[in-house]
Amino acid sequence: FTKIVRPARMLRLVRWFPLVSKLRALTLAFTRCRAMLVCAVTCLWLMVFVFAVIFSNAVAGYISDADPGNSYVTDMQTFFGSLLMTMLTLFMTISGGLDWW
């Protein structure tokens, strides 16, 4: 009886082959586009860095010339206080994360 049931169980595994092939295709697609993904992320990081340097310089100039009672100065110091925070603010602006922060 077990000699008959075992091949029947093996036949039940055949129905999973299309799922496995789709997963394999998805994995292959991801591994083949990995170099382009790294290049795109590097370009995005570089652009954010360049604009963060520009914005930090502009905000520092604005804060030094602003009136002490200006309400925008505290917000600018929060969002653009350091280069890293400026980069985070710009990335959140690009990705829509500034709405929930």
TrEMBL record:
<feature type="transmembrane region" description="Helical">
    <location>
        <begin position="79"/>
        <end position="98"/>
    </location>
</feature>
<protein>
    <recommendedName>
        <fullName>Ion transport domain-containing protein</fullName>
    </recommendedName>
</protein>
<dbReference type="GO" id="GO:0005216">
    <property type="term" value="F:monoatomic ion channel activity"/>
</dbReference>
<feature type="transmembrane region" description="Helical">
    <location>
        <begin position="35"/>
        <end position="59"/>
    </location>
</feature>
<feature type="domain" description="Ion transport">
    <location>
        <begin position="3"/>
        <end position="97"/>
    </location>
</feature>
<keyword id="KW-0812">Transmembrane</keyword>
<keyword id="KW-0472">Membrane</keyword>
<keyword id="KW-1133">Transmembrane helix</keyword>
<dbReference type="GO" id="GO:0016020">
    <property type="term" value="C:membrane"/>
</dbReference>
<dbReference type="InterPro" id="IPR005821">
    <property type="entry name" value="Ion_trans_dom"/>
</dbReference>
<dbReference type="Pfam" id="PF00520">
    <property type="entry name" value="Ion_trans"/>
</dbReference>
